[in-house]
Amino acid sequence: PDVNPLRSLILAAARNGSIRRVVATAPVSRDVVRRFVAGETTSDAVAVTRRLVEDGLTVTLDYLGEDTTDSAQAEHTVQSYLELLDRLHAEGLADRAEVSVKLSAVGQMLDEDLALENARRICRAAEAAGTTVTLDMEDHTTTDSTLRILGELRKTWPWVGAVIQSYLHRTLDDAERLAAEGSRVRLCKGAYKEPESVAYPEMTEVDKSYVRCANALLAGDGYPMFATHDPRLVRIIAERAEAHGRKPGSFEHQMLYGIRPEEQLRLAQQGHTVRVYVPYGEEWYGYLMRRMAERPANTTFFLRALLTR
Ligand code: FDA
Q1: Stretch 43-59: mean pLDDT, rounded?
Q2: How far is the CA of 294 from the centre of ligand 1 (A)?
Q3: Can you give the residue ranges of the Proline dehydrogenase domain (predicted)?
Q4: How would you write 220-274 as a 3-class SS string?
Q5: Binding site feature residues
Q6: Residues belonging to the active site
Q7: How far, in Å, from the CA of 156 to the mean position of ligand 1?
Q8: Is 91 exposed, middle or buried (0-12, 13-18, 19+ CB in 10 A)?
Q9: Strand ranges in the chain using DSSP code E only, listed in sequence order
Q10: Ligand 1 center from residue 228 Cα (angstroms)
Q11: Between the CA of residue 290 and those of 45, 256, 262, what are the distances in Å?
Q12: 190 Cα nearest atom in ligand 1
């Protein structure tokens, strides 16, 4: 059962067509959207990247869209990444900004080979631009397929990053297996609604699992990327990194665009690598609603902005 009624309400609103039209067209909601999403175009994404880089941060860009069952849509997503990578290179940002890709947006639901081929095209463009790619992780039914595609890509491009989710029971094993030299691994809690057969239902268990997986990554020879806004986990990561003799630069912190921006700057000013996950594109609505559902305070802010326009 969903114990958070506001969360259920927001997720229901996210599926409601008329609410979507109001949110998408209200002039003031554009400002609120802009707090979490860079904008709809490549130029918007590049402009936000430049601003963050000038503030001493690094970036990973996500062209929004997922769960495509249409190969033309998958092709559109690939083309958007190719255009973005070209622009990052041309504007001298490719050493500070990489891309994050959801395989379901490039055809994973249609055919694993199509997703692999599309991901290869994005990796080739990233290599030409002088940057890297991380494969986002989606719901648990896709984990094995995503790790298979990762394995294939890493034969050519060992720098392709993986994502693991501490809410899954399997993840400590994955962390130990992936913590090898040259590997880039993002650890997050996990954002999908998962059954108890595969995931910890309690947040305290998810947090404990996060710490176990963080230890495994820090003990290994790879490059861990700690994606969390959780102040307690950020503190624990600092302690554990020190205990493992990890210097700043041998791991990084990652946070979402618009969430705890002061903390992002504080960590960067301490000498840490901080990477901001920046989503952009026309398909911002579902992403925004998931961020609202995670945090009632954001929703209040959002609804107030809508009502007082
Ligand atoms: P949690 O949600 O438990 O929040 C802990 C604390 O952080 C809060 O109490 C508050 O202090 C602060 N906080 C959190 N959200 C906030 C907000 N919106 N505004 C203000 N403060 C807030 N998931 C996935 O399944 N696959 C993936 O590939 C990725 N990729 C990814 C990349 C990056 C860079 C990040 C940061 C996150 C992801 N995620 C993800 C999402 C992740 O799994 C998770 O859903 C969110 O990061 C929220 O979890 P937290 O660890 O931040 O903690």
Answers
A1: 98
A2: 8
A3: 49-301
A4: CCCEEEEECCCHHHHHHHHHHHHHCCCCCCCCEEEEECCCCHHHHHHHHHCCCEE
A5: 102, 137, 165, 189-191, 228-229, 290-291
A6: 136, 186
A7: 31
A8: middle
A9: 58-63, 97-101, 133-135, 162-165, 184-188, 223-227, 252-256, 273-280
A10: 5
A11: 20, 12, 22
A12: 43
For residue 52, give both structure tokens: 């963050």
For 63-87, write each residue's pLDDT tens digit: 998 788 899 999 999 999 999 999 9
Ligand 1 surroundings by CB, under 6 angstroms: 136-137, 163, 165, 188-192, 227-231, 254-256, 259-260, 277, 291, 294-295, 298
Domains of the chain: 38-283 (3.20.20.220)
Interface pTM, i.e. ipTM: 0.96
**Which residue ranges are tagged as binding site for FAD?**
137, 165, 189-191, 228-229
Whether 197 contacts 171, CB under 8 Å: no
Structure tokens at 303: 């609804």
pTM: 0.92
Task: Give the tens place of pLDDT for each residue, 235-254.
Answer: 999 999 999 999 999 999 99
